[in-house]
Amino acid sequence: MTVKTEHKMTEEDIEYLCRLLVEVLKIPVYFLDEKYEVCYAFAYGHLSNPLQPSLKQLFKELFSHKEVYEWPIIKSTKYYENYCAIRLIQEGGFKGTFIIGPSLYAYVTANEIDTLIKANDLPLSAKRQFIDYYNTVAIFDYKKLISTSLLVYYYVYKEQMSVSEVMEKNSSLKQVPVKIRNDCEASLSRNRQSIVFHHSQSGEKHIFNYIKSGNKEAILKYHPKPQDGEVGILSKNNPLRGQKNLAICSVTLATRAAMEGGLDSETAYTLSDLYIQEIEEINEIKDLSDLEVKMLCDFADRVKKVKEHIYSKAVNVCIRYIFKYLYEEITLVNLGKQANLHPSYLSELFKKEVGITVSEYIQKERIEEAKKLLVSSNYTLLDIAAWLQFHDQSHFTRVFKKFEHITPKKYRDLHMV
Q1: For the chain, how big is the Rg over CA atoms in Å?
Q2: Distances in Å between the alpha carbon of 207 and those of 149, 212, 219, 224?
Q3: Prior bond to 226 cis, omega within 30?
Q4: Each residue of 40-61: b (16+ CB within 10 Å) or e?
Q5: For residue 11, how far is the Cα from the chain centroid?
Q6: Which among 22, 180, 320, 375 counts the fewest CB atoms within 10 Å?
């Protein structure tokens, strides 16, 4: 061992550090001795994993004392939990380990909990336990977890390490770049021998330029044309998975093209998420091609709609802000700050370009949103009115009738499936 502390940490020092960490981070902190017995354990309203009854066994599996490491270690469990460990080396010997966790990189979804229950052959009644457990686990992204471990490391050893150093030392993919380089050279050689190459970029450029310009007709005309080469193999042993991966790549590129064409990023990313989710549900390769065409045309249509309303930069800033914060209170003063214009001048400019006042535009957009909620949900009129910043239900009804010429209740009755 080469790591040495500036001073010997006493038991009081160790306990103090553990207590301090749990108070600041709101995350469990442990200190184990050299035999992996828990000496100190501090938690902050934290429940135990129903499938992980023995902490000692868990820590021995994750952080074996046979491993020689002198830097923070990050490990994950099959239950989506993450732990970081910093070993304490003093006077040339291993004295114990600080362990921080569990934490999660993201919230665990109901579907992921269902998968755990099924994989472990548990009754559905266990779902409540898992929900309660995961609700007590802190959300730390990877870099934040590493930074936390570096803080402890510095306290113990008074030595600095960078986040990138720890990421590199914790990487399990050190040989991947070498493998990819070798495989790439071999594949290029085979392609040249067989005179079989990937398709050129020109076809993709045509499609995504059509999206940027909002030209759906050109997409429908061009898309059936055969590729001038082979598409990539994105899954070795599963053709359906490979086609799904290609379709997801297409969604990603279409999303970028649509944003370059003027579609607001929130709409573009939301569409991207929904199309990728739909791709994952498909079980027939032929259906993927059909969905891809529909997706490309959808993006193009939305870009075309945006381009039909060409406004000044200031007005576009206001329209995007209204779209994003439709459920919040929006004032002319707020919009003026966003557009960097005096509210009075902005009001005149908006009316001149859009044809209606700012307040009328906001009302119109809120009524459009209300129509979607009325048809797609069972929310009460009172809830919808409150969310969309109407004074009360009667105010909501008056404004709704102004734009739609019928009451919200009548609209729901006519359009609910």
Answers
A1: 29
A2: 47, 9, 6, 11
A3: no
A4: bebeeebeebbbeeebeebbee
A5: 41
A6: 180
**Angle at Cα 265 formed by Cα 261 and Cα 268, nearest 5°?**
75
Of 392, 404, 326, nearest to 361 (Cα)?
326
Alpha helix segments (H runs only) across 136-175: 142-157, 163-170
pTM here is: 0.48
- Cα 303 to Cα 290, 293, 295, 331, 350, distances in angstroms: 20, 16, 13, 28, 21
Asked if 16 and 24 touch (Cβ cutoff 8 Å), the reply is no
For residues 74 and 149, give the distance between their C-alpha atoms in angstroms, rounded to a whole number: 9
Alpha-carbon distance 54 to 121, whole Å? 19
Q: What are the 10-residue block averages of pLDDT along the chain, 417 residues in total?
A: 60 89 88 83 80 78 69 86 87 82 86 84 82 87 88 88 79 57 59 49 74 85 58 65 86 90 86 90 84 90 82 88 90 93 93 92 93 87 92 93 93 82
Backbone angles phi, psi at 309, to 5 degrees: -115, 90
In residues, how long is the chain? 417
Cα 416 to its chain centre, rounded Å, is 32
The single-letter DSSP state of residue 198 is B
101 phi and psi angles, rounded to 5 deg:
145, 175
Residue pair 364/331 in contact (Cβ under 8 Å)? The answer is: no
Residue 97's closest CA among 138, 140, 56, 139?
A: 56
